[in-house]
Design goal:
Layout (H helix, E strand, L loop, with lengths): L1 H50 L10
Organism: Prauserella oleivorans
Protein name: DUF2207 domain-containing protein
Keywords: Membrane, Transmembrane, Transmembrane helix
Length: about 60
Amino acid sequence: MFWKIVGALLLLWVAFMVLGSVIGFLVEAVFWVALIAGAAFLGTAAYGAIKGNRDKKQLRS
């Protein structure tokens, strides 16, 4: 009976370790994707602000 409890605790500990590493990897991957997307958005916005036409006509005045 003692070894069944020890085995169950060991199995539970390994499951938590694997689950934690998978969730940690996903959080880190989402962080880097968001960081790259934010940099691309800011670069595009800066390029549009610098390159934009100043003499655009309004649709309604």
